[in-house]
Design brief:
six-stranded antiparallel beta sheet; alpha+beta; Beta-Lactamase; 595 residues; 19% strand; 12 helices; five-stranded antiparallel beta sheet
C-alpha cells in the first residue's frame, strides 16, 4: 500500500503523527498531574477528618482524666477545713499540749486515706503529726517558706506538690490556716496525699495522659516510665526548683512539634512508651497548678488516609488506562483511514493503466472488510461498556458529594462500588470476546432474582428520572437458572433500557417483570406500555434499530448481543406485541439447582 502513496503524502502523515503523539503525551502528563492532585487531596481530607475525630475523642478523654484527678483530690479538700475548726486543734495551738492532737491527726489520716496530716504553729514549725510514732516524722520541721503554708497563713487554701527525697514519693499538699477570734491564723493544718496511690487505677486507660507542673516536668501519669521526665521539646527548659531532686529528673524524649490546622502533633523516636507520632491535646488545671496533656497515636489516621489515597489512585489509574486504550484505538483507526483514503485516491487515478493496481485494490478491499469487522466489535464493546461507565460516573459524583458533606464512610462505599463496576467492565470485555469467537462462557447456577435486583439497581436512576413504575409478578423467592450472572444482568439491563426508550412519548409508563417456573425451565417476561415493535421478527438482527441516533444513540447491537447470550446458555429470547399495546420480551432459561 505504501507504494501507492504520493511522496508528498508521507511527510504530511508523519507530521500529523508527530503532532498527535505530542498531544497524547501532553494529555498523559496532564492526567497524571490531575490524578496526583486528587490523590493528595483525598489523603489530606481523610487525614484531616480522622484527626478531627481523634481530637474530639481526646478532648473527652482529657476532660475525664482531669476531672478524675481533681475529684480524687477534692475528697481530701474538706479534711484541712474540718481540722482547722476542730476544738482540739485550736486548744493545742493555745496551750501547746499536743498529746491528744497527735491521736486526732493520726485518726483523721487513717479514716480519710491521707498519707500524713500535721499541724504547724505560727512560725511554721510542726508541733503535731499523724506520724509522730514513726522513726522519721514531720515533728519539729519548719515549713514557713513553703508556698502552701504561706498561702494558708494569708487566709486561702494552699496547694503544693513536691518529691520527698527521703522516700522518693510524689506528694500533694493541702494547707488551711487555723483561725481564732483575733482573725490572724494561729497555725496551719496540712494534709499530705500520695499521688502514686491515686494513679494505681489509671494504668488501664488506653490513652496516655500526663500532668506537667509549672517546670514542664511530668509529676503524674498513667504511664510510670514518663514520671519525672522533662519536656525535651523546649528550647530553654526551666531549671528544677529546690524541692525537686535535680539529679532524679530524667530527660524527656526529644521531639518535634508541628501544627496541623488547629491541632498539635508531636513526633519522636527515642522512647517506645509514646507513639512515634501523637496528637497532643492540652488542658490547664489552675486549681492544682498543673497542665494536663493527652497523647493519641495518629497511626490509624495515617493508615486510613493512605488507604483512601490508594483507592483513589487505583480508580483514577483504571479510568486513565481505559481512556488511554480508547484514544490509542481511535488513533490507530484514524491512521488506517488516512492511509486507506490516500490509497483509494491513488488507485482511482491509475485503475485504467495497470492491472496490478487493480489486484492490489482488491486486497485492500479485503483488508477494509477486516477493519469493518473490527469496527463492529469496537462499537459493541463501546455499547456494552456504556452502562458500567455511567454507573462509575454516578458513584464518583456521589463520592465527591459525600466527601464535601464530611461522610467519608459513604464515599468509601461508593469507591468500592466503582471497583465492582470496573471488574464488571473487565468481565464484559471477556464475555464479548468469547461471544465474538463463538466460545461458550462459564455456565453455572445463578439466582435469577438477584440478577434482576442488580439490574434494577443499575437502572434505578433512569427509571426514576423517566417516571417509570416497575411491577414484579410471579415467584419472588430465589430462582436458580443455568447461565452467567454478569451476562444475564447485561440482557435484563438492555431490555429495561429499551422498554424505557419505547415509553418516552407515553403518558403511562409501566414495566412488568413476570417470573414463572416449571420442572425444567424458567421463564422471564418483561412487558412495557410503549408503542410496540414495528417488526418483531427483525429486532434481533445486528444494527437493526428504530431509535433516533440523536435521541438515544442506539446502534442496534444490544438485542442482537442479548439474543446470542441467551442462546449460549441453551435458552431462547423472543419478542412480541401485546394486544393492549406495548411489547413483551420473553427469556426461557434452563432451571438449575441451588449450589
Amino acid at each position: 500500500m505504501g507504494a501507492l502513496l504520493k511522496k508528498c503524502d508521507v511527510p504530511h502523515i508523519m507530521k500529523s503523527n508527530r503532532f498527535s503523539f505530542g498531544l497524547r503525551s501532553l494529555s498523559v502528563f496532564a492526567f497524571i498531574a490531575v490524578a496526583a492532585t486528587l490523590t493528595g487531596a483525598s489523603y489530606f481530607l481523610s487525614f484531616n477528618n480522622d484527626i478531627r475525630q481523634l481530637s474530639q475523642t481526646g478532648t473527652i478523654r482529657l476532660a475525664q482524666a482531669s476531672d478524675r484527678l481533681l475529684g480524687q483530690l477534692e475528697s481530701y479538700r474538706e479534711l484541712p477545713n474540718y481540722l482547722a475548726q476542730h476544738p482540739d486543734v485550736i486548744a493545742a495551738l493555745r496551750s501547746g499540749t499536743t498529746d491528744d492532737t497527735h491521736e486526732l491527726l493520726a485518726s483523721a489520716a487513717l479514716t480519710s486515706g491521707a498519707d500524713d496530716v500535721y499541724l504547724l504553729d505560727p512560725d511554721g514549725t510542726v508541733i503535731a503529726s499523724s506520724d509522730y510514732e514513726e522513726p522519721v516524722s514531720f515533728l519539729a520541721r519548719n515549713f514557713a517558706s513553703r508556698p502552701d503554708v504561706v498561702a494558708a497563713m494569708s487566709g486561702t487554701l494552699g496547694v503544693f506538690h513536691a518529691i520527698e527525697v527521703s522516700d522518693d514519693t510524689r506528694d500533694f499538699f493541702l494547707a488551711r490556716g487555723v483561725h481564732t477570734a483575733s482573725g490572724r491564723p494561729k497555725g496551719v493544718v496540712v494534709v499530705k496525699v500520695n499521688i502514686a496511690q491515686l494513679e494505681f487505677e489509671w494504668r488501664i486507660d488506653e490513652d496516655i495522659v500526663a500532668f506537667f507542673d509549672e517546670n514542664d516536668v511530668v509529676f503524674s501519669s498513667n504511664r510510670p516510665s514518663l514520671i519525672l521526665r522533662r519536656d525535651g521539646g523546649m528550647r530553654d527548659p526551666k531549671p528544677a526548683p529546690d524541692h525537686y531532686p535535680a539529679d532524679r529528673i530524667l530527660p524527656f524524649y526529644t521531639h518535634e512539634k508541628t501544627s496541623f490546622g488547629p491541632h498539635e502533633i508531636w513526633t519522636q523516636s527515642a522512647t517506645p512508651v509514646l507513639p512515634s507520632a501523637s496528637l497532643v491535646l492540652t488542658r490547664a488545671l489552675p486549681q492544682i497548678e498543673m497542665t494536663a496533656r493527652v497523647f493519641i497515636s495518629t497511626a490509624t489516621a495515617h493508615a486510613s488516609a493512605r488507604l483512601q489515597a490508594m483507592l483513589t489512585a487505583a480508580v483514577l489509574a483504571v479510568i486513565g488506562l481505559v481512556l488511554f486504550l480508547l484514544v490509542q484505538r481511535r488513533q490507530r483507526l484514524a491512521d488506517q483511514l488516512v492511509i486507506e483514503a490516500a490509497a483509494n485516491a491513488r488507485l482511482e487515478a491509475r485503475v485504467e493503466e495497470r492491472t496490478q493496481q487493480l489486484r492490489q485494490a482488491q486486497d485492500e478491499l479485503v483488508q477494509a472488510g477486516k477493519l469493518s469487522a473490527l469496527g463492529q466489535m469496537s462499537a459493541a464493546i463501546s455499547h456494552e461498556l456504556n452502562q458500567p461507565l455511567a454507573a462509575i460516573q454516578n458513584f464518583a459524583a456521589n463520592s465527591q458529594k459525600f466527601i464535601d458533606r464530611k461522610r467519608p464512610e459513604k464515599a468509601v462505599e461508593n469507591l468500592g462500588a466503582i471497583s465492582e463496576q470496573t471488574d464488571r467492565m473487565s468481565r464484559i470485555i471477556r464475555n464479548l470476546r468469547a461471544f465474538a469467537h463463538k466460545e461458550p462462557g462459564p455456565i453455572e447456577p445463578v439466582d435469577l432474582q438477584t440478577v434482576i435486583d442488580t439490574a434494577l439497581d443499575l437502572t434505578r436512576e433512569r427509571l426514576r428520572d423517566d417516571n417509570v413504575t416497575v411491577n414484579r409478578c410471579g415467584r419472588r423467592r430465589p430462582v436458580w437458572v443455568l447461565g452467567g450472572h454478569v451476562r444475564l444482568q447485561q440482557v435484563i439491563v438492555n431490555l429495561l433500557n429499551n422498554a424505557v426508550d419505547a415509553m418516552s412519548d407515553q403518558d403511562t409508563r409501566t414495566i412488568t417483570i413476570d417470573v414463572t417456573q416449571d420442572a425444567a425451565h424458567v421463564s422471564v417476561e418483561i412487558r412495557d406500555t410503549g408503542s410496540g415493535l414495528g417488526d418483531p421478527a427483525r429486532v434481533f438482527e445486528p444494527f437493526y434499530s428504530t431509535k433516533d441516533i440523536g435521541a438515544s444513540k442506539g446502534l442496534g447491537l444490544g438485542l442482537s448481543i442479548s439474543y446470542g447470550i441467551i442462546g449460549s446458555f441453551g435458552g431462547d429470547l423472543s419478542a412480541r406485541n401485546l394486544d393492549e399495546g406495548g411489547a413483551a420480551f420473553r427469556m426461557i432459561l434452563q432451571a438449575g439447582e441451588a449450589p
